[in-house]
Specification:
The protein is of the alpha/beta class and 277 residues long. The chain has one domain (26-275): Alpha/Beta hydrolase fold, catalytic domain (Rossmann fold), CATH 3.40.50.1820. It contains 11 helices and 6 strands. α1 (42-49) links the parallel β1 and β2 (56-59). α3 crosses α9 and α5 runs antiparallel to α8.
Length: 277
């Protein structure tokens, strides 16, 4: 992308809208991660609608804002296959797909790109640094990946009161109303999926995935570089973007939940990217 996003910021929908004049009929697919629900996308959906992008489908991975089927094994590979199946279903309607993904939603997208890149016209994803061979999972992820310690960690979150869970999400960076929407879904179902997903996604699994993608013929993409994200270093994300031969969108004053407020500049950048493809 040509310019970093940051500095002057305005609330979604209040600034001048950029109309999508060159973009053919297509659907934007949003995929969120852990421990979230599709509520995190509300400001971005509003901002995109103001710019004429109204075909938007938020997808919630099993266990994260929607129940997980009892027979669903929540491994990294199975989440990638889940996303592939969802994209195949959308493609049956004859539309082209632009996928925007966050956190483990980005992980699922990277997995889908590994096996079915043909389903996706363009992609946008953050936390690309997890694909780096040198990536070290953050402390909480390492706890979840550790037998017994992980079970104790998720039990402590699930067994806390709804008010405490809401406060936890606010402390992590979600606005109060959004935190209240997400908190009820921090439950036993999500806890089971968190443990299995993170354990199957431990190194070298994500590094291996990154190496496969570096050698693949991928559709046009952008790595979102949220430079205040404490979970993935900007240096690793930029290095992965170079290896994948895609641009970065630097978000100089945004953290992990870059999409929860003040998204006008981000929406403009997305529309610009989609219009070029």
């Amino acid at each position: 992308m040509r310019r970093p996003v940051g500095g002057s910021r305005r609330s979604a929908g209040t600034g001048p809208a950029t109309t999508l004049t060159r973009m053919p009929e297509r659907t934007v697919v949003l995929v969120h991660g852990n421990p979230e629900t599709s509520a995190i996308w509300t400001p971005l959906v509003t901002a995109l609608a103001a710019r004429g992008v109204t075909h938007v489908v938020p997808l919630s991975p099993p266990g994260f804002g929607v129940p997980a089927p009892e027979d669903f094994d929540p491994t990294m590979a199975n989440y990638a296959q889940w996303l592939v199946a969802e994209l195949e279903a959308l493609r049956r309607d004859g539309v082209d797909l632009d996928v925007v993904a966050h956190d483990w939603g980005a992980g699922h997208l990277f997995g889908a790109l590994d096996v079915r890149p043909d389903l996706i016209r363009t992609w946008v994803a953050d936390i690309a640094g997890v694909l780096h061979r040198d990536y070290v999972w953050h402390d909480m992820a390492q706890a979840w990946q550790t037998p017994e310690i992980g079970e104790q960690a998720v039990a402590g979150m699930v067994e806390s009161s709804l008010d405490d869970r809401t406060t936890l999400f606010q402390a992590l960076g979600l606005p109060a109303g959004m935190a209240a929407e997400v908190a009820p879904w921090l439950n036993d179902d999500m806890a089971r999926c968190v443990l299995r997903l993170y354990r199957t996604g431990a190194q070298p699994a994500v590094g291996d995935l990154g190496e496969r993608l570096a050698g693949a013929d991928l559709p046009p993409g952008i790595v979102i570089d949220a430079q205040l994200d404490p979970y993935v270093s900007p240096e690793l994300s930029r290095d992965v973007a170079r290896k994948l031969r895609v641009d970065t969108l630097p978000l100089v004053d945004r953290g992990h939940w870059w999409m929860v407020d003040d998204v006008d500049d981000i929406a403009d950048s997305l529309v610009e990217f989609w219009s070029a493809h």
